[in-house]
Amino acid sequence: MRLDSFAGNAAVKSQLAAECDAGRFPHALLIEGAPGSGRRTLAHLIARAALCRDTDPSARPCGTCTACQKAVPPDLTELGGDGAAIPVDTIRWLRDEAYLLPNESAYRVMILVGADHMRHEAQNALLKILEEPPAHVIFILTCDSRTAMLQTIQSRCVCLSLAPTTWEEAAPILRQRLPHTQEEELQRAHGLFGGCIGQVIDGVSDGTFRQVLDMVPQMAAAVIAPAEAELLQLTAPMEKEKQLTAGVLAGLHLVFRDALVLQYGGTATLSTAPEVARTLAARLTGPRLTALMEQVESLREAQLRNMNNTLLLTRLCACLRQAAGY
Q: Which of 18, 68, 88, 262 could cross-link 122 (Cys pair, CB 3.0–4.6 Å)?
């Protein structure tokens, strides 16, 4: 299987290539990773490889056969991806659809985007087909975190976890996709969005990156402000913007990390608000700064588990103030 166009995650790509080149194509895959980590991109590469008609498994997807040339292959079905949970009736339709034979390839591939958003009744309906799948069907599920999926579904899937990319791995793609953005700006965005290429591209393109740069210093300073309302007011733009929330949380984590480094005599800073980090280092103890980092990490995990954004922001204000001792 050819996965050279997918950045990073060498271990995942090696595992997939070994299985598929040996003719052991998994009948169910669960790909987890942070938004923008490439879950959907990888799902489509795997689907293309499964549908490719090249006789050499290691050359798939070849890009030249009739299946690869089609924008939407007839044997590929994709559900989800619009932010809404896939309903149970759609999963029941999918179960019936799965028994139809492929049109032109050896397999039918069914991609379920955001499978962790499905309610338990929909997951249970999916489980019935995963327990005894037709031999010609491959299911590919993507999710933020598999913890939101039924354990019985996880046990019937090959689970792949995508890690963030390094700057060296991401740079060629970012330079190609964002040719008018300066290298230094791309590198800062890559660090801020935790190595998730999709978040960097979206954040730079739609202005979220600039918003994060503006908001992070203000919010980090508000953690130790006399009035609690100051931090709460700053979260208002994040209420309906989950990607902005994710960017701000990543930025705050870097600021608190820098403050801790400075607290213990270090000099290297990574955040976009080094001055605020110095202020925090002077005002807070090492244990307080460690607690702030832990709280931000907990909030980021809660967001991956699809916690309601309004509740998340309320928790952010309370937890960060408490961790700082205010």
A: 88
